[in-house]
Amino acid sequence: MSSATETASAFTKNNPFHAKVVENRRLNRVGSAKETRHIVVNIDGSGLVYKTGDSLGVYPQNRPQDVAEIINLLGASGEEPVSPALLKLPAPVSLHEALLSKLSLAGPMRKILETLAGRVTNDAEKARLAALLAPESTAQLAAYLAEREYVDILSEFRSARLAPQEFVDHLRKLMPRLYSIASASKQYPNEIHLTVAVVRYTMNGRERVGVCSTFLADRAGLGTASVPVFVSNSHFGPPDDTARDIIMVGPGTGIAPFRAFMQDRVASRATGRNWLFFGDQHKNCDFLYEQEWNNHLAKGILTKLSLAWSRDQAQKIYVQDKMRENATELWQWISNGACFYVCGDAKRMAKDVDTALHEIIAAQGGMDASAAVEYVKTMKKDKRYQRDVY
């Protein structure tokens, strides 16, 4: 075992490295409805190693104002020692620390309402809880919980008093978030680049945020070792055979690993052709890493760039539409051995791309639907069809 591997094993999911954020810039231009950020963390001295296609695990912290509000609603100081049972901590921590960095403040469950029902003294609050917990209110209860976090529930049922330990025992563990790495270690051995979609919205009259995306965008200070990270190994990655062509489909933040793919292919002097399908809302303000892609195209490193802008015309255009538009050439690449990669939204985009791929293979390859299914299965078995979806 090499010393680099030995060092790398010292920092894991259970023992993360505290990395520094050294760059934090917005990728969308003025006019965009989105906030996507390019985040660079420095891992110098960690011994962490990563390969193209891997992900970075990030342990976030909750927003301090949310923590302070919960502590206030509990009538606590924040210094109370707590030992959340599910965390199996070696020693108690303060309520403030538990709420800030160890427990999720979202996703309340029925149990908290059942506990509060036994504690409320206000008649209106009692009636509200009884109605929500009634056997015939299953759908209403699910809708109620989906629109709330724990701070909302404590605020709505103020007459109930829970001890800090009792409250934290209702919470789940604050889990790390995984981000596809947007850099190649051959070019950036001591840095990891991320493409982060920052989540901000309003629900139930309260501002909501993505815990980890806003932690990286707003709260992880530049130059301070404040971001606990670990490398999550992936089976997703460019082909070992650098002469093989690759087709990359990555709309939105799904572009991240393909930025790394291109850096890797350049460093490896790959001779295979590269084709990118990218899409977002508007060309003028949502073309992530536009200059880099245009530079690759100008130098002939990127062979083909197919762009889909969903809001620049009356009819929405997506990456799967661009695939169908280029069906003949796409089949030529695939039938000649190209690898096909997809990264991004699992719920809709990846399914739509998969459907388009099957249709194109069937139509262009002169196959029936079942033969196309078998062809795609073989591609997956041969690692020529890989997905990094979330």
- Radius of gyration in whole Å, from Cα? 24 Å
Count of individual helical segments: 16
The level 1 CATH classification of the largest domain is: Alpha Beta
Helix content: 25-40%
Number of strands: 15
Average of the residue pLDDT scores: 95
The secondary structure category is alpha/beta
- The rounded distance between the terminal residues' Cα atoms is 33 Å
- Major sheet description: 6 strands, antiparallel
SSE map:
Layout: H1 3-8, E1 17-26, E2 36-42, E3 55-58, H2 64-73, E4 81-82, E5 93-94, H3 95-102, H4 110-117, H5 123-133, H6 138-146, H7 150-156, H8 164-168, E6 177-180, E7 191-197, E8 200-203, E9 206-209, H9 211-219, E10 225-232, E11 246-249, H10 256-267, E12 274-280, H11 283-286, H12 290-298, E13 304-309, H13 319-325, H14 327-335, E14 339-344, H15 349-365, H16 369-381, E15 385-389
Walk me through what this model shows.
The protein is an alpha/beta fold. The chain has three domains: 3-60 and 176-232, Elongation Factor Tu (Ef-tu), domain 3 (Beta Barrel); 64-168, NADPH-cytochrome p450 Reductase, Chain A, domain 3, CATH 1.20.990.10; 246-389, Nucleotide-binding domain of ferredoxin-NADP reductase (FNR) module (Rossmann fold, 3-Layer(aba) Sandwich). Helices cover 37% and strands 21% of the residues. The protein contains 16 helices and 15 strands. Strand 8 (200-203) and strand 9 (206-209) form a beta hairpin. It starts with a helix and ends with a strand. Residues 1-8 have low confidence and may be disordered.
